[in-house]
Amino acid sequence: MRIAHVLNQVSVTASAMDQIQGSVAQAHSVTVVARRSDPAALSFLHEKRAVFRPVRHRFLSPLAIIELVRLFRRVRPDVIHLHHARSALASAIAARLAGIPCLVEDGAQRDNYAWATRILFTLAEMLAHRVVFVSHAVQASLGALERVLIRPRKCTVIHYGVDPIPTVPGVRQQERAALGIVQGETVFCHTGRFEPVKRQDMILELFAALRSQLGFPVRLLMVGDGPLRGRLEALAQRLGLTDAVVFTGMVSRDRVYRILTVSDFFIMMSRTEGHSVSLLEAMMAGCVPILSRIPSFSETVDDRTAIYFSTEAQLVADVCGASIDMAARKQLAKRFCERKYGFAAMMNGYHAIYRGLAASADATQP
């Protein structure tokens, strides 16, 4: 089977890269189409034997749509998998013109999109043969008009999935030393892009409260980068957390995994999420999640496995309770993720859709 993935930009941190790897593992021929790609992503694609096809013109321009039609007719994929709003609409139009079935994957709740992006996704989903939402929360976020325009019978939910996090002997001790973590410290971790929707300022304020009220030493690892990093570092300084918070900046995915394995708690206070891969990776590494009470998180993990924030006093009590038997709580999080969000389950869902779309396209051929 030949699969074409179309993205605005290819980067190694994109969830699409996991799906591309999963399709290659199934011996599918994979073509990746985008306007831009970073060097690490190109190296990854070459290693996985996926072919990269750059698009010269801006998505949504008539020239780009003509270019995409010609590319699709030349490559002849069985299915086109679309990931981002601008490229999705242009490619959905081109796919219709080229006579190739396509699916749109929608990874965020509608209120997380700017209006222009929301409209582009809706138009692309109207044109697509199938629409995949990464959570029921994402599908439920559609407005009344969007529910009418996007036919329910072509919609489905496939949650993200992750592989087990590999453990290498000695790496945990090396990583703790590199991060300055001393014996007896309980480690909190957050990974993600530093932007308003993630509410990392709230994370720092809650950590300051925990540090002042818990009866044991704590450390917070802030992994990532983004436009709010300078403001967050200044806030940490104002809260007196300079010696307790480590801002790592952008690190490799392998190092993210190493950092997760030395952490005890993973904290996310997002205002909205589609289905957080960062949360899944943290649980797979054995971190106890501390989460804001939003629909996506409530759908992803139950109250027995996660600590949901309500008040600072309750959070302190919950963290103390979890720390009494930390090993058992960490195993609970890991087993929960392994049972519900395995990578193979996600890919099996997509491959079933690929086969169905390819079969229906074959049936309509003269």
Structure description:
- The chain is α/β, with parallel strands linked by helices and 366 residues long.
- It has two domains: 182 residues, Rossmann fold, CATH 3.40.50; 170 residues, Glycogen Phosphorylase B (Rossmann fold, 3-Layer(aba) Sandwich).
- Helix content is 48%, strand content 17%.
- It is built from 16 helices and 15 strands.
- The strands form three sheets. It has a seven-stranded parallel beta sheet with strand order 5-3-1-6-7-8-9, with helices on both faces. Strands 12-11-10-13-14-15 form a six-stranded parallel beta sheet, sandwiched between helices.
- Helix 12 packs across helix 15.
- The longest helix is centred in the last third of the chain and has 22 residues.
Quickly count the helices. Answer: 16
Proper CATH architecture of the largest domain: 3-Layer(aba) Sandwich
Arithmetic mean pLDDT: 93
Class of secondary structure makeup? alpha/beta
CATH homologous superfamily descriptor of the largest domain: Glycogen Phosphorylase B
Unreliable runs: none
What does the largest sheet look like? 7 strands, parallel
Helix content percent band: 40-55%
Number of DSSP strand runs: 15
> How many angstroms separate the termini?
20 Å
Give the C-level CATH assignment of the largest domain: Alpha Beta
What number of structural domains do the residues give?
Answer: 2
Which terms summarize this structure?
single chain, 366 residues, alpha/beta, Rossmann fold, 2 domains, seven-stranded parallel beta sheet, six-stranded parallel beta sheet, elongated
